[in-house]
Specification:
Distance between the termini: 45 Å
Family: Belongs to the complex I LYR family. SDHAF3 subfamily.
Organism: Sus scrofa
Number of helices: 4
Mean pLDDT: 78
Number of domains: 2
Order of helices and strands: HHHH
Strand content: under 5%
Shape: elongated
Subunit structure: Interacts with the iron-sulfur protein subunit within the SDH catalytic dimer.
Low-confidence stretches: none
Subcellular location: Mitochondrion matrix
Largest sheet: none
Keywords: Chaperone, Mitochondrion, Signal, Transit peptide
Radius of gyration: 20 Å
Length: 116
């Protein structure tokens, strides 16, 4: 790792590290950067809340239709795909490949009910 690269971090520590880095900025840039980081964090949390709600809805539908194979995911309209950069589309493609592997690495044949 060279002197200018940051070590690998979790999302939480990256966010905290970014906030700490703001202290070294000049006052005018600090205010602007704080607002940007705050807006980005709020946007990310809102997206994850939507994602969590969709997964809960799909999980409940799968539980109601327990005789069918569980299905997770949603169709992304072309307009939404156009909003993503090339790297994000590459990540989606890798995720799709992993999720549709025939070896069933992530499939769960046990009951969907939690074991207590």
């Amino acid at each position: 790792m060279d002197e200018h690269s940051l070590p690998s971090r979790t999302a939480h520590s990256t966010f905290l590290g970014t906030l700490l880095l703001l202290w070294v900025l000049p006052l005018d840039l600090k205010a602007l950067s704080k607002e940007y980081v705050k807006d980005e964090a709020q946007g990310l949390l809102q997206e994850w809340e939507v994602h969590a709600a969709v997964l809960w809805q799909l999980a409940n539908e799968n539980r109601r239709n327990s005789t069918e194979k569980a299905c997770f995911g949603t169709i992304l309209p072309e307009e939404k795909l156009n909003d993503f950069c090339g790297e994000q589309i590459g990540q989606f493609h890798k995720l799709m490949q992993e999720a549709t592997k025939p070896n069933g690495q992530f499939s769960n044949t046990d009951s969907m009910k939690p074991k207590i």
